[in-house]
Amino acid sequence: MLKSAKLAATCNYKRMLKGPAVTCKSVAPPDCAGTLVADSIALAWGLNNPAPAAVDRTPLRPQLICQKTISTGVVGFIAKKLRYLILGRSEADAEALARRAIDKIPGRCVVAVAQDTSGIVVPDVGPQMDAAVPGPGGSVQPTVLADALVTLLETWVDGVGPDPTPLRPNIVFILTDDQRFDTIGLTHSIDGVTPVMPTVQNEIVNKGVSFLNSYATTDLCAPSRSSLLAGKYSHTTGVHDNDAPDGGFLAFNDASTLPVWLQAAGYHTGIYGKYLNGYQSPYVAPGWDEWHVFKNVAYFNYTLVENGTEVAFGSADADYSTDVLRDKAVQFIQSAPAQQPFFLYFAPKAPHAPATPAPRHAGSFSGIPPWRPPNYNEADVSDKPAWLQGIAPWNATMQMNHDNFNQAQLETLQAVDEAVAAILQALIASGQDQNTMVIYASDNGYSWGSHRWEPKQCPYEECMRVPLAIRYASLAPLARAESGFGLNIDHARSSPVPRPIQESRA
Q1: Residue 207: which of 481, 466, 494, 430 has the closest Cα?
Q2: Are 322 and 358 a contacting pair, CB within 8 Å?
C-alpha cells in the first residue's frame, strides 16, 4: 500500500513539473486498502491529481514546496500509523508518531495560493480541506490544515488497519416541519447581523458540511418523512399523501426503516416529536427503544404517547411542545447506555402552521421587511400550469396575512434553535460531542408567496428545497459547502449501518 501511494504521489509531482505526458510507474494497492490510497492522493493533490499541464516553476517555487510537503505528509502519516499499529503500538502512540509526518506542513506552507498562466492553482487539496487552502490569492492556514488532515486521515486509517474500526458515531437527527431552505442564516435576519438560528448557523453549518442543493422527493409531510425513514421514493413506500387511503401513518410499512437497521446494528434509539400524519395511539413503531411521539401534533394542548402511555400537556408556558421535547431529548442523551451508540430523532412541530411561537419569542421578528422575491405574487402566470393560473393574484389583505405568518414561522424557530443548543451542550457535558454526527434538516420547504403560492406541495424550488447541514468532525474536520444534488431518501442509505443489515430488511 505504501509503495502504491508513494508512486502515485511522485507521479503527480513529476507531472506538475514536466507535464501530463510524463510516464509513471504504478502499483495497484492491495484489496485490504479499499479506496484509502486513491482517497488520500485525491486529498493531498485536489485538482492537481494530476495537473493538466506543467506549472511555471520559478514564481511558484514556495507553492510547489507546500504542495509536495502536503503530499509527503499525507502518505507518511498513513504509512507510519499503519506500521506502528501493526507493530502493536497503542492507538494514541501510533497517532502521535504518525503525526510527525504532518508536522512539516506549518513550516513549509506559509504561502499564498497562486495560479500560473495556464490556470493551475498551487497548492490545491481535496474539498475536505478547502477552508484551510482557499482559492488564488488566499493564504494557506497551515496549522489548521495539518490538524484537519490528522483528524480525517486518522479516521480513514482506522478503517483499514490491523484491527479495523468501523464508524459507529452517535447520530442526532433534527427534523423540522415545513422549514424553508433560507431560514437559518442571514437572509431573513431581523437585524442583518444575527442569523435567524444562531446556534444552527454557528455550531452546525459553520462547523460542518452544508448542502446547498438538498431536496425533498415529495414535498409533503408524511410522504417526505416516510421516504426519509425508509430511504425510498413515495411511489415505493406507498405513502402519497398525508391521509388515507393513499397516505399517512396507515399506508406506511415501517418494518424496514432507519431505526430498525440502527437498532439491529447495536444502537440505542429514541424518537421525540412528530412521527407520521394520522398516527394512531398507542402504537410504538419497530426500531425504537424510546418512543415519545405526538398523538395530536400541536404547540399547546397536545398529548404525547410515551412508550405506549398517553401523557397530556396543557396551555401553560412550560407546556410549549418544542421545549418539552427538548428536555426529553437532553434526558435521552444524559441517560444513554455507556459503550453503546445512540440515535436521537428530534422532530418538533415548528415551524408548521399555525406557527405559534413560544411566548418568550412572540414578536421577536416584528418589523422584519416583507419577503418579496422577483417571483412573489407573480403578475404573469401564463407560462405556468393551469392549476396555478387559476389562483388569483393576492390582494393587500392576503399579503399582510401571509407576511404575519412568515414572521411567526421565524419566531417558532427560535425555540428550535435553543433546543439545538441544549442538545449540543448535553453532548459536550457527556463527552459525546466529538463522536456524534449531528444532522439538521426539514421535511419540505414552503413557498411564501412565490408564484402566488403560500404553502408546500408545489413543483418549485421554494417547496422542494430544504436546509441540510451535517456536523461530524471525524469525516469533515473543516466546514465546507457542497453543491452536489442530495435527496431526503439518501439519509437512510447513507447511515453507518452495515450494508447486509440494510439489505436483509429491504
Answers
A1: 481
A2: yes
Q: What are the helix and strand counts (H, E) for the chain?
A: 16, 12
Beta bridge partners of 210: 469, 481
Grid cell at residue 229? 425513514
46 and 135 belong to one structural domain: yes
Distance of alpha carbon 313 from alpha carbon 14, whole angstroms? 69
Residue 165 lies in a domain: no
Which three three-digit cell numbers place residue 106? 506549518
- Rama region for 115: left / alpha / beta (φ>0; ψ in -120 to 50; rest): beta
Residues 213, 131 share a domain: no
221 has catalytic annotation: yes
Distance CA 77, CA 366 (A): 54
pLDDT tens digits, one per residue of 449-485: 999 999 999 999 999 999 999 999 999 999 999 999 9
pLDDT tens track for 492-501: 988 776 555 5
Provide the number of structural domains found in the chain: 2
β-bridge pairing 342-347 and 170-176 = parallel
Peptide bond before 50: cis, by omega within 30 degrees of 0? yes
Domain around 277: 170-504
Strands 268-273 and 436-442, by their bridges, are unpaired
CA distances from 5 to 26, 32, 48, 60, 173 (A): 9, 14, 15, 25, 37
Active-site choice (66, 109, 221, 458): 221
Identify the bridge partners of residue 486 per DSSP, sorted by sequence position.
Answer: 214
DSSP states along 220-259: SHHHHHHHHHHTS-HHHH---BSSTTSBSGGG--TTSSHH
Strand partners, 173: 345, 439
